[in-house]
Design goal:
The complex is a heterodimer of chains A (about 110) and B (about 110). Chain A is an all-beta fold and about 110 residues long. Helices cover about 0% and strands about 60% of the residues of chain A. Classes of the chains: A mainly beta (about 110), B mainly beta (about 110).
Amino acid sequence: SQTIHQWPATLVQPVGSPLSLECTVEGTSNPNLYWYRQAAGRGLQLLFYSVGIGQISSEVPQNLSASRPQDRQFILSSKKLLLSDSGFYLCACFVYYTEAFFGQGTRLTVV
Amino acid sequence: QKEVEQDPGPLSVPEGAIVSLNCTYSNSAFQYFMWYRQYSRKGPELLMYTYSSGNKEDGRFTAQVDKSSKYISLFIRDSQPSDSATYLCAMTTGFQKLVFGTGTRLLVSP
């Protein structure tokens, strides 16, 4: 079965600092991987998705970027964090058309 | 207009009640419909999915899809305090880009 590892679980960063969140997947090969952000009362917003190594699609313009250096590794980054980047970040992996598995998330607070 | 609309709640019910959670959507191309449960500070977990219109039952949970009305529902029978969570509907055209509702917070009191 698929397992998604996300770290760190919580993070407090000052405005203007860089960010790197990592997600790794076990139990499947060549997965489609996703980064979502969840803000209070606003549901899950799709940020990036990747169908393979080096292939990244961005859903919304923002202060973030994503990379997929290995088949089962997905990284979310920022060069300079903004206050508005605070939120709950979730990595997800799709199996078939219907089953998306999520990591446990990273709660980011930008201060 | 959002692609998927969901009442954020909170919805408060007593233990044992039947709970009805709903979403409406605007994109007629959606074919796969899912319900996720999310406990506080955790990632969402898949509860149920249905393809196209119809009903699907799994224990105390029943998912319904009415594509003609662009309306989906999740029913929870004999609700328990452990069902207290945020329930998110999600849907996709089949190309694996899930679109989520905002989630409905459910509170089941003993």
